[in-house]
Design brief:
Number of strands: 11
Structural class: mainly beta
Helix content: under 10%
Radius of gyration: 13 Å
Oligomer: single chain
Strand content: over 45%
Shape: globular
Distance between the termini: 40 Å
Number of helices: 0
Length: 122
């Protein structure tokens, strides 16, 4: 059974940076497409970014493009989300997800972490 554990969330000021990590265990990490989603208070969970198994293909939501970067280290079974120029509207719980292919659709992902909270103050 694949397990995903996020870390790196916390409090940041607007304009600041945070790096989220998602450590995977129990599966073939290098074969898995990975993604980050987020859910703000009172809102539905939304796509943030995804990355192919090799790391050669990435895609980011328009709302974070140019500010956030997804990456992965298959030797460490870890996927990252580098978040720069943070805005108060980035406040959310961020979830890591793994699946067989890259997609912006939540239901296409088989494995989910518990989430890590990010709070951006103005």
């Amino acid at each position: 059974q694949v397990q995903l554990v996020e870390s790196g969330g916390g409090l940041a000021q607007a304009g600041g940076s945070l790096t989220l990590s998602c450590a995977a265990s129990g599966g073939t990490f290098a074969a898995a497409a990975m993604a980050w989603f987020r859910q703000a208070p009172g809102k539905e969970r939304e796509f943030v970014a995804h990355i192919s198994g090799s790391g050669g293909y990435t895609n980011h939501a328009d709302s974070v493009k140019g500010r956030f970067t997804i990456s992965r280290d298959n030797a460490k079974n870890t996927v990252y989300l580098q978040m720069n120029s943070l805005k108060p509207e980035d406040t959310a719980t961020y979830y890591c997800a793994g699946g067989r292919f890259v997609s912006r659709t939540q239901s296409h992902y088989d494995y989910w972490g518990q989430g890590t909270r990010v709070l951006v103050s103005s």
